[in-house]
Design a protein that fits this description.
The chain is of the alpha/beta class. It is built from 11 helices and 9 strands. The protein has an 8-stranded mixed β-barrel, surrounded by 5 helices. Helix 3 packs parallel to helix 4 and helix 4 runs parallel beside helix 6. The chain is globular, with a radius of gyration of 21 Å. The protein binds ligand C2E and magnesium ion (3 copies). The site of one magnesium ion (MG) has 4 residues, from loops. This is EAL domain-containing protein.
Amino acid sequence: VAKDDGRNRFAFYTKEMTRKATLYMERDRDLRRGFDVGELVLHYQPQIDMASGAVLGVEALIRWQHPTAGLLGPDAVIPIAEKSGLIVPIGEWVLREACAQACAWRRAGLPPLRMAVNVSARQMNPDRLPQFLKNLLDETGLPAEQLEIEITESTLQNEDNCLATLLQLKRLGLMVAIDDFGTGYSCMGSLKSLPIDRLKIDRSFIRDIPEDRDSEAIPEAIIAMAHRLNRTVIAEGVETLAQQDFLRSCGCREGQGYLYARPMAAAAVAALLAERFGLAPDLS
Ligand code: C2E
Ligand code: MG
Ligand code: MG
Ligand code: MG
């Protein structure tokens, strides 16, 4: 009886594994198709000066306008693309598209906005990414300091090439931010020597403010540390005025979150900025 059980379980596992592998291959194929025919799009979420309400920058966030499933988020794209390596061409498309958009807004007469772009661990290749970005900046004429690369703490820890790549990006004049800061286990001591301009406090630390007083300790400490190390800091996932007020009382200047704006299509960002600045941009 035990033997039968084992065999059945084995049969079950193989079936399950085959099903998963097939599903993954189908999704990968569908993603390659979608990428090729131009179904990937970028939405942009404003980053706000919490004192004045001014828009200081935007973060580019990938979406997939799928023919049958509708508008899909990064979860439908990034994990599959990272597994297959498609993340490298997709990531380069994201950088190209984001830079082109920043340039288009400038041409339309909007004030210069910082453009933040998420970059995966597999893209941090010192023989590829810096040269790619140098060419991109040369071709588009976008000032390097207007482009901010977001990498996560886990990329910083697990990618041997990461530091070499970062140093080259800094040499080009780009800005670098650590995304989802506080969720990995970065060695605090190494922060002071890393070529990082900015910490993005993960939204999990913002969520419980101010219901739970203990939860305020972590964002408060991150903000103080960032300032002591001469780094700037931004809070993600700001949803309420109470959260904004607490963050401001800690000296955090910038925030990003649903309180201000959801990620939106490029045209909606331009409309929002035009309204704020009383401009009538020429978006042709
Ligand atoms: P992230 O870089 O931490 O981006 C912030 C995420 O938080 C976005 O989710 C945004 O929509 C969401 N968010 C912003 N404000 C709020 C808020 O007030 N409340 C809540 N609950 N959520 C908020 P999204 O667009 O689903 O992106 C998820 C993740 O996917 C991103 O997290 C980033 O890690 C990854 N991602 C997105 N685009 C790209 C890309 O082009 N390349 C790579 N490698 N990763 C990307
Ligand atoms: Mg990000
Ligand atoms: Mg983040
Ligand atoms: Mg996050």
